[in-house]
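Wed. Picked up where I left off yesterday with Apoptosis regulator Bcl-2 family BH4 domain-containing protein. The coffee machine is broken again, so keeping this brief.
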Amino acid sequence: MANESPYNIRDIVERYIQHKLLKRGYVWEFRPGAAAAATADDDDNDEAEMPRAGPARLHRLLREAGDELERAYQRDFAAMWDQLRVAPSTQLQRSFVAVAEELFGDGVNWGRVVAFFEFGGTLCVESVNREMASQVDHISSWMTDYLNGPLLQSWIRDNGGWDAFVEIYSQQRRSIFHPWPYLKTVFGLAALGAAGHLFSQHRTALPRTKALLSTPWSGAVLCPHACDWSGRRNKD
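Structure written out below (tokens, as returned):
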């Protein structure tokens, strides 16, 4: 059971953040010792990638999914960045948690998990843009803790683990993005509402957010023959 999964959540988060920052010309170093450990993990799994997807493949596909979301709705993310008011760490953490709770408030699916990563990456980029690079380490820790929390940890485990994301995204690369407008609306409302108002210390209700979060946007399109709306693989 000790080797049940080859994936390390902190490694997944750190590599994703590093990718988002590098795209904008920022270099963010791994924590001391983390880079060497991550490299060793990938080297160990390269030879055993088949039949099980190794960490390197997961990192690549997760980056591609996040980049696709960003490209499809670049203006919406830009608008979100304009609304963010990066605050001291404690206030930013409350905002981060508020957005995550809105995003997963009515359920979890792989699309929302990708959006969670993209939101965290957006916060990191915005923090560096505002010369508050020290926030990146904090955001990385919050993302890791949330993914390791009971909600997402149990959902990912019960829905096939990260290998399931690799399988679903690999097979449904083209169709997975058709429902993004629903997610974009939900994510935009959560980010602009929860984050924007919390950063400015004016919290308001988001009456439409809960309704939109209940939309099964990732439904049959995400995995039409083998999944229900949550991404869980159904048995024949």
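Quick read: Residues 68 and 177 are 8 Å apart (CA to CA).
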